[in-house]
Write a sequence for this structure.
């Protein structure tokens, strides 16, 4: 305990220098924790979104896999349409439990004077596709009724029974979806035939969602479907997970490369700080040796100085990552083409402890050379100056 107190007093002699060293360490650890936490949250939230789709694969126009993934998970508007002439060929498969065309578009809301994201689908399949939804009201039973997502209803102050107009066509709000804390809250849902008429695409869809009766037969079904129905792109939920996980992995590798550089700079900063401290205290260390302090004692003092520096930097880095997690996440969302809905960077005690241990480990390695330098100080020469 005495060595720890002595090491702490030594660090307090040069507050600004040690503060800057700690700041460098904290920046490295904050970046490391944020990147690993983001990657874990990305995968967990992605799996949640996949499970919420209620579908096993999508038949879509050929395109970028990230674009397709955004369509499946976020209902993104894409400038391509699938001709529904292929639907009878697909629907005839007995292995399919659900085959539902899906159409996504931005439509001008005549009542509110704004563009709304509108999701068109066959309402008969809604309960199976979105079993987790709780609706205040009922699922539309006619082409003149719509469902409204929680955020849309809140933003427009819409109540069940209100009327909204799209391209001069009036729709009655038959129900409002209770908050799901997902992208579903931001959409208006209407029968696909109504949406097709509004955008003048009577035989088109953004994609066809398919749910099979037996999951173990998906691969053979898809292979047969690709052979019998040419000109379509089939994307399974697993392929979407892999595609987007690879995207996250690429971002993680880039981030970790930055962390390696930052940690190297931090380690050199620790080494420089402790070496400067030893040079400044050469005479003091010589006196300590002369009055009976062993080399082990000197080593322990230097050792605890580096441990304290790295430990304080690690703790500060974790605090920074937690306090600014929303800003960091917002920054990443602005640059990555796709990120799952929901909070991504979250506090993980086990991950925080691992980052803290890693910080101390880097400090110990960086302080090893200064500690050896302190052991080589000759007490007589040190006292003479």
């Amino acid at each position: 305990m005495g060595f720890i107190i002595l090491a702490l007093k030594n660090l307090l002699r040069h507050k600004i220098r040690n503060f800057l060293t700690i700041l460098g360490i904290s920046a490295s650890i904050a970046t490391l924790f944020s990147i690993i936490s983001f990657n874990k949250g990305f995968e967990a939230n992605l799996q949640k979104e996949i499970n919420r789709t209620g579908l096993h694969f999508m038949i879509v126009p050929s395109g970028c896999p990230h674009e397709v993934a955004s369509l499946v998970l976020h209902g993104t508007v894409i400038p391509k349409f699938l001709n529904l002439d292929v639907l009878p060929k697909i629907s005839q498969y007995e292995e399919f439990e659900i085959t539902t065309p899906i159409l996504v578009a931005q439509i001008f809301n005549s009542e509110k004077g704004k563009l709304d994201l509108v999701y068109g689908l066959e309402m008969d399949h809604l309960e199976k596709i979105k079993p987790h939804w709780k609706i205040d009201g009922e699922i539309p039973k006619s082409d003149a009724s719509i469902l409204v997502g929680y955020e849309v209803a809140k933003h427009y102050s819409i109540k069940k029974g209100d009327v909204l107009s799209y391209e001069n066509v009036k729709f009655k709000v038959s129900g409002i979806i209770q908050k799901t804390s997902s992208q579903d809250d931001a959409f208006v849902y209407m029968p696909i035939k109504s949406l097709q008429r509004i955008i003048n695409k009577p035989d088109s869809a953004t994609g066809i969602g398919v749910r099979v009766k037996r999951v173990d037969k998906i691969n053979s079904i898809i292979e047969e479907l690709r052979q019998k129905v040419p000109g379509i792109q089939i994307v399974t939920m697993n392929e979407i997970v892999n595609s987007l996980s690879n995207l996250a992995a690429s971002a993680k590798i880039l981030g970790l490369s930055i962390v390696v550089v930052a940690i190297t700079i931090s380690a050199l900063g620790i080494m420089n700080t402790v070496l400067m401290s030893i040079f400044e205290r050469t005479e003091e260390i010589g006196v300590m040796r002369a009055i009976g302090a062993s080399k082990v004692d000197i080593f322990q003092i230097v050792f605890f100085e580096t441990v304290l520096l790295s430990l304080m930097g690690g703790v500060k880095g974790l605090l920074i990552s937690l306090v600014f997690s929303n800003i960091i996440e917002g920054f990443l969302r602005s640059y990555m083409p796709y990120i799952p809905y929901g909070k991504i960077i979250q506090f993980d005690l086990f991950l925080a402890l691992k980052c803290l241990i890693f910080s101390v480990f880097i400090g110990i390695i960086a302080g090893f050379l200064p500690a050896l330098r302190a052991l080589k100080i000759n007490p007589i020469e040190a006292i003479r100056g």
Notes: The mean pLDDT is 78. The chain has 14 helices and twelve strands. The first strand starts at residue 57 and ends at 60.
